[in-house]
Amino acid sequence: MSHSAQDRERAVQAITRRNVLEKRIKRTQRRMAALQGGARQALEDSLMADQAALSEVIPTLEAIKANMRQDEERIRRKAQEALRLKAELRSRQFPHFPVGGVPPSPGQSLDFLAILAAMAVIVGVVLLLIR
Predict the structure, then answer these.
(1) Is the pTM of this model over 0.90?
(2) Angle between helices 37-91 and 111-130 (to 10 degrees)
């Protein structure tokens, strides 16, 4: 599993945990308003424990989000670099010289050079993206 996939899974788990705790806290607060005495104290203790757990989940969630944003930025930069390289290679004027130094015959096309240039662009982009 990739780093980004792990971060996404951790984010889903942390968000789920946060949502469960927030709902439990609200439900406990509503119940506390209706109770008095020992039952109220037990709910207050439960509420404090849930609030403490929530305060631990939130920083974890924020760290995961920050990691995901960094990964997205890194991917965006790599994609921009790949596009830049592709544009640079396309804009270069490849000299029209025959392979092996033999001039092409009048009916022979220089499509081989175009294919070779396209392959170089594709290989460059793939190598850039897998780094």
Answers:
(1) no
(2) 160
User: Domain-by-domain residue ranges, the chain?
Assistant: 3-94+107-130
* Mean pLDDT per 10-residue interval, the chain, length 131 residues: 76 88 88 76 86 89 88 87 76 52 55 69 74 61
Per the CB < 8 A criterion, the answer to whether 18 and 58 are in contact is yes
Secondary structure of residue 95 in the 3-state scheme: coil
- 66-70 contacts, C-beta under 8 A, 24 or more apart: 67/3, 67/7, 68/4, 68/7, 68/8, 68/11
CB 129 within 8 A of CB 78: yes
